[in-house]
Amino acid sequence: MADDGGRTIPIVALTATDLRCRIAAGSVSVADVVEATIAQIDLREPVVGAFQWFDPDFLRHQAVELDRMRRSGRPVGPLHGVPVAVKDIFDTARIPTENGARLDAGRVPGTDAAVVARLKRAGALIAGKSVTAELAFMGPGRTTNPVDMSRTPGGSSSGSAAAVAAHMVPLAVGTQTGGSVIRPAAYCGIVGFKPTFGAIARTGVLEQSRSLDTVGVFARTVADAALLADAIHGADPGDPQSEAGPPPDLTRIAGSKAPVAPTFAFLKPYGWDEADPATHAAFAELADRLGAQCFALDLPPAFDDAPVWREIINHAEMARSFYRYGTRPDLLAPQTREALERGNAISARDYLTALDWQRTYLAGLAEVFARCDAVLSPAAPGPAPEGLTSTGSSLFNALWSLTGVPVVTLPLLETDAGLPMGVQLAAGRHADGRLLRTANWLAEWAAGEEEP
To answer: Rounded to an integer, what distance in angstroms lies between the CA atom of residue 379 and that of residue 2?
Structure first.
């Protein structure tokens, strides 16, 4: 428990930002955090199933070292003692990384992925490996949705989203190739942030699609998402598509006050007519409440094909990346097996044409992003679907994943039954800080803390 001016707050209910400050000040020890984390995982994990690998003794060992470091007076990192769940496609030295695949059962890497190494340098507490859909695609893992156990948590970063939503950890990392950060965050009612493509190096991460794969983060607040993304940002020689540059300073920018109230472009994405009626009603009300700050955006009809071109790139590159898995189709989920078959049948002409459209769409969006602070749209066609045999639809995420722009989802809306519906915001490439500041403004406005 942590004391807050006479109020006792469970440690697992603290934001990562608050938790980091309390640990640095010595009012909470990392050992306290670990015991609270273990107790919460023991409570929720049997039903939620968010972790592929979890060892309480490993957490306790980290706590001893981190507490000793703080007491010594040495400088501590920005995530010192804060628990972070790591999707089970990020290599972790001497800890299993099985990629959600039967062919990789028992696989134990010898080195850490670049992201994991950066987490450790930042002082993060590696809480465990979170469940992924098979090979980070669409074959669901065992994780359930903490909001409603009968519904999917989304995918492929299902365990990461569920662990944060169930207060087992305040932060988690995942990846997105289609909608694998934004969709599960929306379904589970938390914040998901996919930065600009190439902002975070993928060295040591399972490669599915080298033109699309992007490392993203999960948190319960925008400030926490910025904190984690800052800590793991940066290029690495092992990922030629990662982009070198100065630190983005997302935490400072996200927490700064916008000079003027932001402007939003409301997009009804391709597939809008088939979206859940609750989505139609909720977003119509949101746009109406924003008033003059929100204008309707109509993209040219050519943008309707973005999901098709994204899928062509994804499947063609999957067939290359997952060749060895394809030699044992009997050990793959039907969704993975079918995608590999489609990828093997894609012609070079269609693949190269899809890459051309990737650049064309990005150029076409430049004018749109010049007119607004963020494009606003639903994170998914509706709330989390019932059943655990599907991870839901990434249709509304396709354009943003294809073009590699930064995207964030906020848990601002819900159905009459209390099911979360995410509000998706997108901005131009490398406008990550501005996007998070805009998202923070919208979250505070929705909570009544900002004037429209």
So the answer is: 34
